[in-house]
Specification:
The protein is α/β, with parallel strands linked by helices. The chain is 41% helix and 20% strand. The protein folds into two domains: 2-242, Thiamin diphosphate (ThDP)-binding fold, Pyr/PP domains (Rossmann fold); 249-374, Rossmann fold.
Amino acid sequence: MKKLVLGGNDAVAYAVKQCYVDVVSAYPITPQTSIIENIAHFIAKGEMKTRFIKVESEHSAMAAAIGSAVAGSRVFTATSSQGLLLMHEMLHWAAGLGAPIVMANANRAVAPPWSIWADQVDSLSQRDTGWIQFYASNSQDAYDLLFLSFRLAEKVKNPVMVCMDGFLVTHTKEPVATFEDEITDFIKIKDTPVLLDVDKPEAVGALAFPKDYMPVKLEQIKRISTAKEEFYNIAKEFKDVSKKEYKPLYTYGYSDADIVLVAMGSNAETAHLAIDLLDKEGIKSKLIKIVMFRPFPKDEFKKEFKRVKKVVVFDRNVSLGKSGITKDEIAGALGIKNIIGVVCGLGGVDVTEVEMANIAKDVLENKIKEDMILWGEK
């Protein structure tokens, strides 16, 4: 392996270059654009034997990706924010068809007002489309998760979305351990289904009557339900190659912690520092970083929450009219009450480790007893 200084977008493009991708279709949108620019550069230099399809919109990008995937190609695309929303209809089609597409999404706030900075509501608003969702908290995650995603998508016949916070991850340069030849055997394993034989064209009616619709949905539920178990298997293979371990949840800190901080994406990097600050003050704490959000790692959360007194979830997103999305998902899935949600960092607002540590201490001392919004340093 060799170390390169890469931003999240660079890391994704570099991984795609190494993943023997047959087709890339995409439309530019900030802060995702440099992923596609880098890939186009690799193709132009002859470093990738990949068909690049230029399209007129993100909706068309996903349509082209679906067509390529069902014809047996390994397919990649990328988008962000309003572009992901424009894809919404086609996301359902991709998942319903079992098309093993891998997509990178640069998390960006959704208008109004217009913003190009980080907010996870764009991808979280797609959580019910049937896509597997991973969240990278740094450039290394972004790089590694691409390899895992292609193998997982093709194994379970389900599309996968790898998300990373705009600018905070996509453009932050840091050392990334990249593969050379050692990854070849792992990623060359292709299991792309051929649903469409281009040499024997046929038309298939897409309308399902009620008696037929439910079995199709049950099959779709079955596919995505197997994803977590298969992810463990593929991650074990990946560890043999990379010496790096990936699980649906990453933990850091005390196993017998008095308080747990839960975060996803770039907030998890900051929370990591907050755990160190709390440790210096003699407070036993633990970070749970969500890596896999769909399928939801309910059993893993149950295991981590045993004997925990307090839980604080830092959400760089909000479900308007309710609260932070991941906090509600955790509370609903586990039925726990000792959990506080903190909505923070919307539209790229800075969140510091000092703020996180202070909130954790206030929760432990019962100074904060209900969900809150954090805006700016106090």
